[in-house]
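re: that chain from earlier
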Amino acid sequence: MTQPTSRVLAAVLASAAAVLAGCGGDEGASSGDRPTVVVTTNILGNVIENLVGDEFRVVTVMPIGSDPHEFQASAQQVAQVGAADGVIVNGAGFEEGLLDVVQTADDDGVPIFEAIDAVQTISFDGDNQDEHDEHDHEGADPHFFTDPARMALAADGIVAFLIANVDGVDATALETNAASYVAALESLDAEVETLLSAIPSDRRVLVTNHEVFGYFADRYGFEVAGTIIPSGSTADGADARALAELAELIEHEGVPAIFADASSSSELASTLADEVGDIGVVELFSESLGSDDSDGATYLDMVRTNAERIADALTG
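^ sequence. v structure.
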């Protein structure tokens, strides 16, 4: 039986699609002879734009600065998802406010790919999940994109999905274009490893705003000692007792910096830093790209800048 939420979403999608069709122009999901791929997050949107080149029109749902855990789609965006030739999502419940929208499109036959399906996932306690069924990511940390090596694997999976599921794709042209960007991701991974090599093993400790850098830590040999929000979602809250315990841990470990999210409020991080004293608050690009004039305007820039800031904070 169709759930009430699904019926409402379907009605919104249908009415919005009709409005968009009447408006014409570039507002709908279709664009001339090029197929359209709709992408949920701006991080994946930038990656896919570089992968596909001119072979697809890429529509990114979440604008710069959005919190993926809380973002809600407009009626127009719901229509774009439903009319797409393919939809790419992060997966593992990352896009909390879009789950019903994506499920409705899936039920209507729109090809959906969860990018996280292409990588080995870890749980929030840092353990690798060696075996998992497709779309079954219970307990998995969704933030795989903090590791560019995993993003390179996801990129290969995205290209394979588009070739297999979208009619009329020039597979050779797409693979050729994608190969260049995948090589850039692999080069970035090596660059980050070099940037971080100056950090001694006893200082490879991260305290972050929430549980977002687990894959980064797994790839480059760091420990996430604690988080201000003890969750993988910024939608959850902080606990006063847990913050007091975290302050004690920071003092005990001699942690020199707290890493906050550039796209979220750093008020709690600043309060904690004031409580501890003699500790910096360093903003990282975590769940959204930065603005065009920032150091995190592209995925490559975002990862490189984060690595530079972490290296500076932990070796300074």
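The chain has two domains: 4-190, 193-315.
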